[in-house]
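hey m, so remember when u said the tokens were messed up on ur end? i reran from scratch. heres the input so u can diff it against urs
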Amino acid sequence: MATTVRTVTATGGSVPVPINPRTFKGGVGILVSIPEGSTATYDVEVTGADPTTPQADWQWNKHDVLQGKTASANSNLAYPVTAIRLNPSNIGGSLVMAVIQVES
């Protein structure tokens, strides 16, 4: 199992977490936590962009469930994507996203 964590303290998209298509069948979990004393409004976004293209050219879509959230939440990926990121529109303190990929 591989876990990647992204912590953000400002609005805007986080550094993307690449999703390994070879391990996708094993499942990808997403856990977003707002630590005590912090506040945030956030979306989790996904892309199917070719990882070899410049990230500035990637197009992002909001996750079907994790959008407009103001509390800690968990979900998963139902469809293959090439990367995922956290994108807060409002934040006071910090926001943490853990992406768990099951390795075969």
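this time it looks ok to me. Residues 11 and 89 are 5 Å apart (CA to CA). if urs says something different then somethings off w ur setup not the seq
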